Amino acid sequence: MCGIVGAIAERDVTPILLEGLRRLEYRGYDSAGLAVLDSKHHLQRARKPGKVAMLEQALSASPIHGTVGIAHTRWATHGEPTESNAHPHICNQTVAVVHNGIIENHDTLREQQRAKGYTFTSDTDTETIVHEIYENHINKGLDLLAAVQATVKGLHGAYALGVISKQDPQRLITARMGSPLVIGVGIGEYFIASDVAALLPVTRRFIFLEEGDVADLTRQSLRIFDRTGKQVEREIKESELSADAVELGQYRHYMQKEIFEQPRAIADTLEGRIVNDQVIEQSFGHQASEIFEQIKEVRIIACGTSYHAGLIASYWFESLADIPCRVEVASEFRYRQPHLRKNTLVVTISQSGETADTLAALKEAKASGNVHSLAVCNVAESSLTRESDLILLTRAGPEIGVASTKGFTTQLTALLLLVLVLGRRHGISAKREKELVHHLEQVAAKVEKVLEMDESIRLLSEQFGDKEHALFLGRGTMYPVAMEGALKLKEISYIHAEAYPAGELKHGPLALVDSEMPIIAVAPNNELLEKLKSNLQEVRARGGKLFVFADGEAGFKSEVDVTVLDVESINDVIAPIIFSIPLQLLSYHVAVIKGTDVDKPRNLAKAVTVE
Ligand code: F6R
What we know:
Oligomer: single chain
Strand order of the largest sheet: 3-2-4-1-10-9-11-15
Number of helices: 18
Strand content: 15-25%
Shape: globular
Helix content: 25-40%
Largest sheet: 8 strands, antiparallel
Structural class: alpha/beta
Low-confidence stretches: none
Radius of gyration: 26 Å
Bound molecules: fructose -6-phosphate
Number of strands: 27
């Protein structure tokens, strides 16, 4: 999704803006641009479709410098990824704006502005904002801050904005509603960005703006106004992330790095949350005990990979903790007038904490008045954590690859902690909790072991390079694991992949099976194993090529058209975490063979901050 960087300083800000844009590349984008006010207070702008590297090339050919500036990576929504649609958008060579989010009333604004004779140079909703600021407000006598405050009052939808003006060259104005925005605090300089990662080389001190805030930054001062226009103080927080937390290091791709970071990320997610073989309830927030006491059922809401984590957790909630649990895709939940019973815990799951559908679904759920909310999230200062009663942070560290890997397995780890604390009140005995905690504490080491399969999976992946379709099968918790495996393969290798519960095969998908169709099965050694084996026989009988990731003790053997890869033998409860790893490695290696852009697959963005 789009990214914003801005700076006001004594030094030249162009290199800071460019480095910030490079650090936001992982979010997905298709054009980039920046604008600065030069020493004569003229607005200078450069924009390019394609990568930030293209913008850099353009800037080395015709450099621009300035001490105030804004920059943007755009992920096309309104209008194609062309230079004229790229941000910043400028009005009358005077005001420049970068914008993340979507302005829902842009059609109305555009009609009104056209009627007044304003001309448009792009198809974007953003251009209506810059016209509104300059033509409608500055031209009528307001200063830049007042003009932005007046403009945002008339905007419907989501926005994070950075605004500069040649008439007010010592100022950078920023505002947010529904899209994330942070202010970086330097010494005699300020920065803005849609993500702290963009600013880590220049500061570790951040202010997280709240919904409806507008901020007025000069080199020496910062004033923040809330949605009512009242000046407010917002706390400065120190980020624990280091600038190199987002460096690639020895790895070829971020996805690869993040797959291999999983043992540490899982261990960090458990750290300090278990004492004397019991999960500490306060890890979820100080109100946790009071809220958990009332909970009778759980509703999980999420998107994509996080939704798959939720599906696995629903098996755990019902089978281990005896708590009714339902899981829903956020974009469906938010529009279907759901019925939530009193004493439901609404659990949202999100790596980024900024997914527009998940945020909107949470608002919808809270509006019903009956529920308590808990966020399982990887970003401490995200919109989702701010909106939730309770929070359990996954401690995966920044996830840069668009395809979520360590985000997913740390979500599962965190969700299992939640199942245990809630389950305690619904029949999980201290003995059973101790047993399960013991398994959880072994997960990081088991993942480490499974990662040793990397080379054999790389060799296996060569058989997928020419495939156009793949079928993933699993039963029980392995069905959502299969769904996640199929999602990973399709999003980064562009091979069409579907997942089915193995028992569903004969109700339709079996018709697809022939010698060209690779079928990937996940087979832990559990009570469903014999049933799964019968399903796989159905595939073999139709000439399908089977690839089975099986518990070493499940009794599978490689033979003609059946390739078996032994996975560490493990307890069934934690099996979904462990079996996800070889599927991640498989999709990674297939994507490398196919030569796709592994970390930034086409058409996708890291944080889906628009609907
Ligand atoms: C797939 C993937 C996406 C995200 C989804 C939700 O690999 O990463 O499906 O899981 O967009 O994102 P979050 O978890 O940030 O809410």
